[in-house]
Amino acid sequence: MKQLVKISLFVFMGMGLWAFSRADQLFDLAKNLDIYASVIKELNQFYVNPIDPNKVVQNSIDGMLDQLDPYTVYYPEEDLDEFTTLTTGKYEGIGIRASWVDKGYYITYVDESSPALQAGLQIGDQLLSINGNQITEESDPGLLIKGPKDSKLVAEIKRGDSQLTLSVNRSTVQIKNVGYAGIIRPGIGYIELEEFNQSATKEMKAALVQLKKEGMKKLILDLRNNPGGLLTQAVDICNLFLDKETPIVSTKGKLKEWNATYKALNPSWDTSMPIVVLINQNSASAAEIVAGVLQDYDRGTIVGQRSFGKGLVQVTRDLPYRAKIKITTAKYYIPSGRCIQAIDYSENKDTTKREFKTRNGRKVNAGGGIEPDVLVGRPQANSLTQQLLKERIFFQYARLFKLKHPSISAAANFHLTEPEFEQFVQWVKASKFIYESPLEKQMRDVLKETQKDPLYVNLTATLEKIKPEWDSSIAKELQANKKVISALLEQEIVHHYYLKKGINEWSFEHDPSLLKGVELITNLK
To answer: Which residues form the PDZ domain (predicted)?
Structure first.
């Protein structure tokens, strides 16, 4: 009896402590909200310059959320278009992207089924004005390009030496989830899944059905550079390859109502077709769920590099004045029981890796993303390549290349000849591109120091004498890194002629991860 009394007293005290803790927390919250409101009022009344309440509050909210994780995001009413695009994959515009390159805004991407392409806009066109608004470095072309469906956009562009005016009717642009689908080898289908918005499963299933009609017996699913999206779409895509009622993913959070297990709700599309899944360091969230689930059930072979490591789930909540907030509410766990979250944001450190097992007993790790079954190292971009990419040198040259060459061979067969690569080298040498290798920078720093001290006069002379050995030569550096640089340049040129589809077709003969996937799946039965 005494033991029962002790237990009852302990439970009562525990409940009381929790109640007081909860009350203290609510009091602190109310107190700080009152202080915050008072600070805003005082600033508004007494600060020397007028303040913008919207901007001040927006900055303070962003600062608060920055203390949590990158995925908890506030969307004021004016940013709801961005939120809608993320969830539905739809926006009203013309289907292009533009970037500031060498003193101008140039079109760097054109959607293959867009109003822009139909109206004649091309990658490489420089935007001079939109509906009479001159485009400068301070402009935001994205805001000028978007507009209500069926409204007219008049773009003044420069293409080479020609100046053109093109009229485009805006429409609802659907961002495709399936970027490419086709038969890349006899019996081997390839699907590139780029997004997980509301139509992802529908597009994926349509692609699978079509490829099977064309003779697909094995599938390579490319999830590289897929940032994720809707959890439900990831579950439904896994369901295509797993039996009905199969557990797919579980979520666990602070509130019990957010804890759930998602199962396959529909009959599968195919449970035996050999599958290879390609991932890389930019495969995240929903993409990692699909790759991880297929790995846990030994349903697919994962090839490439370790994925990003986002094992968190967000829920959208409505706020006053049509604002919204996306809040991280739970972690997700795939069938082996592992969570692949790489960073513990509560302590700002990497999560600890733990070992789990797949259905067939293979060892897999939690924490740090999805580790591929077959690792394929990605080409390492050295400092020169990084600088070329940063300054958009490949884009600039591809734009000029297309102006000089009306056509090129089919994307899959395109290859720069030796003379063509040499022309690129000479163009870079003659351009304003400046490059200093890490070694050169270190040697110059040493030389400066030796010049300051007479004791090192002999060393200074030696460094000056061997300067040709360490002084960067653009031509020499480009030739030394020809393999990687030539591949990047070929991709950019193909993109200008054949858009995104062309890059896919070029990659079928050049992409190391894809070629390894083809090799593996050829031997799978």
So the answer is: 83-172
Q: Is 310 one of the catalytic residues?
A: yes
Using only C-alpha atoms, the chain has a radius of gyration, in whole angstroms, of 28
Contacts of 289 (CB under 8 A, 6+ apart): 231, 234, 235, 238, 248, 249, 332, 334
- Per DSSP (E only), the strands in 82-217 are 90-93, 96-100, 105-110, 126-130, 133-134, 152-159, 162-169, 171-174, 178-185, 188-193
Query: pTM value?
Result: 0.87
Q: Burial of 48 by CB count in 10 Å (0-12 exposed, 13-18 middle, 19+ buried)?
A: exposed
Closest CA to 311 of 353, 342, 355: 342
Choosing from 283, 285, 336, 507, the catalytic residue is: 285
Contact call for residues 446 and 463 (beta carbons, < 8 A): yes
DSSP assignment string, 313-348: EEEEEE-GGG-EEEEEEEEEE-TTS-----EETTTT
Q: How many CA atoms lie within 13 A of 502 on its CB side?
A: 22
Q: Catalytic one among 69, 125, 222, 296?
A: 296
CB 170 within 8 A of CB 152: yes
Q: Would residue 28 show up in a list of annotated catalytic residues for this protein? A: no
Cβ neighbours of residue 31 under 8 Å, at least 6 residues apart? none
Mark whether 205 is an active-site residue: no
Which helix (H) or strand (E) segment holds residue 365: the answer is strand 363-366
Per-residue pLDDT of 335-384, as tens digits, reads: 999 999 999 888 777 787 889 999 999 999 988 899 999 999 887 778 89
Residues facing residue 365 across a β-bridge: 355
User: What is the per-residue pLDDT for 97?
Assistant: 95
Asked whether 274 and 521 are in contact (CB, 8 A), the reply is yes
Q: How far is CA 524 from CA 60, 141, 211, 280, 294, in A?
A: 55, 49, 18, 22, 15
DSSP-H helix ranges across 377-481: 383-390, 393-404, 418-430, 438-452, 457-465, 467-470, 474-480
